[in-house]
Amino acid sequence: MYSQSRKWVAPRVLKEDQNKRMNNSRRKIAPNSIAWELNLDVEQHKKEFAEIQQAQLERNIKYHTDDAAERIRLGLPATPPAIKPAFGGKVFKGNDSAVLSRKTVFAPDFEEGREVRHATNHGWINKEIAVWPSRMEMKYEGDDRISTDKLHGRFLGAPRTEGNETVNWQQRSIIPQYAMEDFYYPVPREEEIWLRVHWIREHQFSDMEGVEALGKDLMDMLNI
Length: 224
Hints:
single chain; mainly alpha; two-stranded antiparallel ribbon; 2 strands
């Protein structure tokens, strides 16, 4: 029965009509589609798709059954042990990362230690947390950047302090980044660019570079 009238229509005729309307819409939606044929039979397509899903399910069952049998034959548990989380599930507190406990903003408590109290009469606190770059800033650092070579191509938007609407984004101060996430400094040396996979004879890190790479605490321990 059509929803607009009380005239009874056989289900077969109704499905054929729906299929015809859908195929007519195909000319507007996907006129050049190779997957959606001109006179696609929707019911046949659903049937074939269900058969494919059933075959995939049977293959998965057979794979797991054969895998369990092979593990038992080798004297192993039928089910592989669950993969344990990294570091035994240990959760680092604060904004320490899993890489030598270096500070990072990619941590649940990334705001920890990112506050600066200004010496004003009100003593207000400005968090050193950068907001998402504005559309103008992303465009300037992206498509509008003059690219003379690959080195001067697209840049990531620098983290900047939050300001009011009257302050241009270029005038807002850049928030210092952690060493792990500083994509702008230091500029790589020629050796680091051209000889990254080669051993450079008698090449040594300076104390400043060692602190940058390993952290001050670890460098102090190594210098004992």
